[in-house]
Design a protein that fits this description.
Layout: H1 3-13, H2 17-21, E1 24-27, E2 34-37, H3 42-45, E3 70-75, E4 86-91, H4 103-109
Antiparallel strand pairs: 1-2, 3-4
């Protein structure tokens, strides 16, 4: 999408981004199909593991630097979506003794 950045990357590293990062290959757990993904396979691989991510967050996020909070994510409720708009909210003044470990965190911790 950004040939200018790809060119700069190639000059700096001596390889194109595709050559540098290569491909990521795995077998999709639900369909059994073999998948070969390029530079950024997160959307394909991690979701099948129950992991979630939020990107392109905006608003007053810099006001949360250095603070503890509970983060709530409230996506649209539709089955089968890979992504959708989502309201992300930080709840301040929550008791420090709360430990919230959902399915996504458990998937990370079990490995």
């Amino acid at each position: 999408m950004r040939p200018d950045l790809a060119e700069e990357f190639t000059k700096k590293h001596g390889k194109t981004p595709g050559e540098f990062f290569g491909t990521f290959e795995y077998t999709h757990k639900k369909s059994g199909r073999k998948v070969s993904a390029d530079v950024f396979p997160f959307h394909n691989w991690a979701f099948q593991e129950g992991l979630l991510h939020a990107e392109n967050l905006g608003g007053d996020i810099e006001m949360m630097l250095g603070k503890r909070c509970v983060i709530g994510a409230f996506p649209w409720r539709y089955e089968g979506l890979e992504g959708c708009p989502c309201r992300i909210v930080c709840f301040l003044d929550v008791d420090d003794k709360i430990e919230a470990v959902g399915d996504a965190a458990k998937a990370i911790l079990r490995n």
